[in-house]
């Protein structure tokens, strides 16, 4: 009998201990979700404790959720793709005798499917509100992309808020509490930072499209399209489009494909800027492989955007790894712009990596983590703009070098006049233009008289000086549109567009008379003078043949020499 009683006492004590422990555990859990005490009229709660519960069935009613155990957390949450329906519990208490009104802000409501709010006092539901992004009749609590709910607290009243957040794919949100004045201030400056980021990207978009239209280089086009995708996604994902145009809900779901098109264009940019197809076949294959996956996801997203977005973070991580490896390979191969690209793309990968972890619910909710992709896009865009500038400068230097080489190839080094080869090419073009315009053209052939005697008597140095002097006089007397060239050793040619033979004769005479009056010094006291002979011919308008015109000018030149030199002769039949 005593034994039975002893067992009964022991059992009773065990049951009592279990009950006390359960009550203590329940009290501890409840204590971890502290009550937010409102003791004055100014309310600005942007960092406080609350609790959350994930409805895995996605079908529980408020009555089912109310008795559930809520996990203590901060007021900002990121739970990934497995928590599409999440409930939040907030404890509020008015420590004043007079009623007070506070405003619950859900600043990222625009990317949700639904938001619901339930107010409970003493275990009884007092007010319920439903905000469905696809139902215009429920949007009275939406303002500039944010859900704003007014909550009235009577004097000394304790109220429990239950908020249901239903996401399309990734679950992330933050809840804030304000008084009326602080609520207005929070709404006014809500998307200023996003507008600044998009404005910077817009300027780069315009700049790169202008570069593409002027240069026709495909990397400018791909980079501009990358910026268009990135800027649009920033405006969409961070609420600027919702703020400006009041667009949210399922209608915007497919717009998130811009997040997929963005890496597609950056891969095309890399393929073109690094010229991987020609120079780096292994890296080219790697970029094409991930490009194919992204294009496949984009096409799949047109039919099932929710599933596509579910895997977008994983695919983005793979893309970032591949592009990083390719960039490092370029750096090892001493590719000239690889370091710039590594810096810019490294910033994008770093911040976007934080964002990927944030969307998967692996890192806490803060501004950098939640806005990582946007920050990464802007920083990469600014650094890649340096690559564009470097590329432009390199191309300009290359063009300048090519122009210098072309000039050297077409210019006589002694006189800086065009050489015979360039004259033949340019003269034929001038003749074609003159024939189309039905304009006259004249040609003059100039030869220094007794040049061999000058060379033999005074040396080649003086001979070169005489050639340069004739070139300088020709240059000074001719018009800008005239084509001048050193045709041979001491021989020069002038093509004069829109000039009749007699006008060409007058010009030749001015050149000849100018040279006749000039001298070249030999030492301090001695000097020497020389003369030229000129033959002029007008091009046959009926048959504008360069070879024939030069032959006729040559005949006139020989006639001038046979007649005693130091004269000009106009060709006649």
From TrEMBL:
Keyword Membrane: yes
EC number: 2.7.7.65
GO molecular function: diguanylate cyclase activity
Organism: Amphritea opalescens
GO annotation terms (biological process): cell adhesion involved in single-species biofilm formation; negative regulation of bacterial-type flagellum-dependent cell motility
InterPro entries: 7TMR_DISM_rcpt_extracell_dom1, 7TMR_DISM_rcpt_extracell_dom2, Diguanylate_Cyclase, GGDEF_dom, Nucleotide_cyclase, Rev_trsase/Diguanyl_cyclase
Group of enzyme by EC: transferase
Protein name: diguanylate cyclase
GGDEF domain ranges (all copies): 439-573
Domain of life: Bacteria
Record-annotated membrane-spanning stretches: 194-214, 221-241, 253-273, 285-303, 315-332, 339-359, 371-390
Pfam family, one: GGDEF
